[in-house]
């Protein structure tokens, strides 16, 4: 049909990028195919690509049919004023609409940020034990996920950051580092770094600690293999408010907050939350003194929930 009745010799220019995007051929693949076989090779690739598209259309149609059936059943139950059936069918409909195919492998990055100032000394053994149970062994996050989703290979990478206060200067942060990353799939190694740091709890020259600074530093890890997982989590363990967030009942306590008005590095809660949202990191606070940490947690939670990039309403 390309000749349109014309005679003579014709040539076709094929772009590697088109063959990649339309037929799934690798760049330069045609160079290894004898010219006499080009047509057959291209025809086979085109056929395979077409069949894959057809299969995708059929799969989408099946999903749409399933949703349509659930929708009809739900409205039929509503019309019949069967509230019990309607509630059950609505749940099924919601799950059908929200359901998405899970990948074969999911990597989860978990950073453990632990306050190791002097006031945390009584709690550090319990904190390390809790993290150990959460991240290693038969009751770990990974094992529980495997039971719920056996078809997915979950890989857990753990990093750690132990922190003191601003006045501790060069001893303020102690981090796990493994080559190009702060994370390791050998979860015990990261927790061991944290356990070693916990043996030397000290510092913290006032009631408030640099919680904002620790979260921001952790979220700002930018090694080649940092924060590359599909899901990203920071777990903070502390017994203190961050600077500028000391509860009103403690404001007049001696040495309550040496940096109540301004963080030395200009950090604000907005900057901290932005660093979390920038890498799509979820934050979990574990407090050993809820009365003290309450205002800090509430401020971060409020900013996080109202952030314009938090489109799925995470809290």
Describe this structure in words.
43% of the residues lie in helices and 12% in strands. The radius of gyration is 28 Å and the shape is extended. It has a five-stranded mixed sheet with strand order 3-2-1-4-5, with helices on both faces. α2 runs antiparallel to α3 (83-98), α7 packs parallel to α8 and α8 (269-278) packs across α9 (290-306). The protein has 315 residues and is an alpha/beta fold. The mean pLDDT is 85. It has helices spanning 16-23, 38-79, 83-98, 124-135, 141-148, 187-198, 211-219, 269-278, 290-306; strands at residues 105-115, 153-163, 173-175, 231-238, 282-287.
What is the topological layout?
Blueprint: H1 16-23, H2 38-79, H3 83-98, E1 105-115, H4 124-135, H5 141-148, E2 153-163, E3 173-175, H6 187-198, H7 211-219, E4 231-238, H8 269-278, E5 282-287, H9 290-306
Parallel strand pairs: 1-2, 1-4, 4-5
Antiparallel strand pairs: 2-3
């Amino acid at each position: 049909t390309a000749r349109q009745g014309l005679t003579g010799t014709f040539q076709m220019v094929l772009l590697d990028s088109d063959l990649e995007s339309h037929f799934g051929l690798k760049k330069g693949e045609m160079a290894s195919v004898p010219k006499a076989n080009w047509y057959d090779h291209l025809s086979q690739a085109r056929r395979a690509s077409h069949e894959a598209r057809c299969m995708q259309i059929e799969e989408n149609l099946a999903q749409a049919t399933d949703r349509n059936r659930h929708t009809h059943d739900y409205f039929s139950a509503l019309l019949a004023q069967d509230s019990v059936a309607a509630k059950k069918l609505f749940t099924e409909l919601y799950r059908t609409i929200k359901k998405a195919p899970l990948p074969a492998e999911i990597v989860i990055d978990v950073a453990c940020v632990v306050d190791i100032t002097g006031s945390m000394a009584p709690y550090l053994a319990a904190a390390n034990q809790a993290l150990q149970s959460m991240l290693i062994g038969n009751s770990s996050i990974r094992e529980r996920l495997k039971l719920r989703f056996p078809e997915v290979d979950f890989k857990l990478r753990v990093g750690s950051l132990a922190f003191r206060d601003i006045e501790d200067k060069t001893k303020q942060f102690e981090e796990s580092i493994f080559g190009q990353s702060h994370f390791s799939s050998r979860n015990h190694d990261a927790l061991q770094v944290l356990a070693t740091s916990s043996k030397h709890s000290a510092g913290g020259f006032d009631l408030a600690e640099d919680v904002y600074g620790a979260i921001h530093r952790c979220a700002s890890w930018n090694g080649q293999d940092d924060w590359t997982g599909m899901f990203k989590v920071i777990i903070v363990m502390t017994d203190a408010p961050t600077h500028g967030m000391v509860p009103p009942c403690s404001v007049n306590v001696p040495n309550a907050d040496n940096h109540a008005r301004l963080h030395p590095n200009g950090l604000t809660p907005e900057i901290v939350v932005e660093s979390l949202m920038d890498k799509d990191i979820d934050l979990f606070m574990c407090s050993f003194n809820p009365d003290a940490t309450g205002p800090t947690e509430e401020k971060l939670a409020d900013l996080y929930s109202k952030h314009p990039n938090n489109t799925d309403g995470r809290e």
